[in-house]
Amino acid sequence: xxxxxxxxxxxxxxxxxxxxxxxxxxxxxxxxxxxxxxxxxxxxxxxxxxxxxxxxxxxxxxxxxxxxxxxxxxxxxxxxxxxxxxxxxxxxxxxxxxxxxxxxxxxxxxxxxxxxxxxxxxxxxxxxxxxxxxxxxxxxxxxxxxxxxxxxxxxxxxxxxxxxxxxxxxxxxxxxxxxxxxxxxxxxxxxxxxxxxxxxxxxxxxxxxxxxxxxxxxxxxxxxxxxxxxxxxxxxxxxxx
Length: 241
Fold this sequence. Notes:
Layout: E1 4-8, E2 28-33, E3 43-48, E4 51-58, H1 59-67, E5 70-72, H2 80-83, E6 85-91, H3 98-112, E7 116-131, E8 148-152, E9 157-163, H4 165-172, E10 179-182, E11 190-195, H5 208-216, E12 218-234
Parallel strand pairs: 7-10
Antiparallel strand pairs: 1-5, 1-12, 2-6, 3-4, 3-8, 4-6, 7-12, 8-9, 9-11
Helix pairs in contact: 1-3
């Protein structure tokens, strides 16, 4: 398969913590082709305490999530990375951190999708996510937890539960044409609700950039800079289980 670029800013952000293994893997994992249903969202992604449930996700989404990086360049047409959808349920050890869970996902992609990557540096558009002049319009959760959920409906909304600003920035990369880094200085966990319009099919609602300011009090500042990219050298349809 032709190589695909996947970019981000600090690959070192995602590192295994020492327990219980240097390279953690899921104990069990199920991967199946997605069967659309009117009873479920178009896409649902949850991960908490070493477990994850992803419904209706593409390979592009999986790789972007695993490495907290956006795939670049965007798809120029229908291809298996962008169109084939899967349901994935996986379980690891219960006290796994968020970073360790993503390392498990990387290992799962290598094992079941035969994913092979390498890294390069590119000069790319970079967006810095900052707090707007009127302050953030959401509050830090006080009940703790280190897991979260993101659901996408029709590509025009984000529902995030117990998510850090770093992960929110990573997910915004799926909607803008550049890397997004968190520069808010907010280190807690938050419930986020964001509704916006797709600029390619405007429906009168706010764009993503407008919605971020109006609904969350956040702003994306554009610039350019050197960005480490991950190039997908090889990927296959997954082995089911």
